[in-house]
Amino acid sequence: MTIRLRPVEEDDLPFLRRLMSDPDSTGEFQWYGFQNPHHLRRRWEEHGMLSDDGGILIITDGDDRAGFVSWNKQVANRVSHYWAMGLIVAPEFRGRGYGTQAQRLLARYLFDHSTVNRIEASTEITNVAEQRALEKAGFTREGVLRGAGFRAGLWRDGVLYSMIRADLES
């Protein structure tokens, strides 16, 4: 397994749509209902899924698309920001370490190509597999976010993780 991250190409759009809008592909913790099928194409045409405020990269293993990682800018105060990141691994690649490796690669990429000092990731409190993946990738559990996310008709607790630039040096 050789995980790489690469920019989104036009022929990746159906794959992304599947992972974001198909309840059989999103996974239990990422299904938020059907989405506008043209939204991804507009984003891709506007800026290729990469901007100063965030982006999406495809997770690959050789020629296979294994999922995607994403990040977006979060304002900390008037003079600084941090990144919030997430991912979805395709069902056929789950449980094999792709999430851990992709999150580690994205964190390194974001620290290498921006001045941020902090990257956050969160997941539902019952998503134990993602919590393990984040911890293996070097993220630190910070705490529980009570009632922070709405999914499938219920408000759900989340868990917040972070990595700061100094964590890469230790």
UniProtKB/TrEMBL annotation:
The keyword Cytoplasm does not apply. Residues 3-157 form the N-acetyltransferase domain. Signal peptide: none annotated. GO terms for molecular function: acyltransferase activity, transferring groups other than amino-acyl groups. The keyword Isomerase does not apply. InterPro entries: Acyl_CoA_acyltransferase, GNAT_dom, N-acetyltransferase. Keywords: Acyltransferase, Transferase. Belongs to the acetyltransferase family. RimJ subfamily. This is N-acetyltransferase. It comes from Nonomuraea mesophila. The lineage of its organism: Bacteria, Bacillati, Actinomycetota, Actinomycetes, Streptosporangiales.
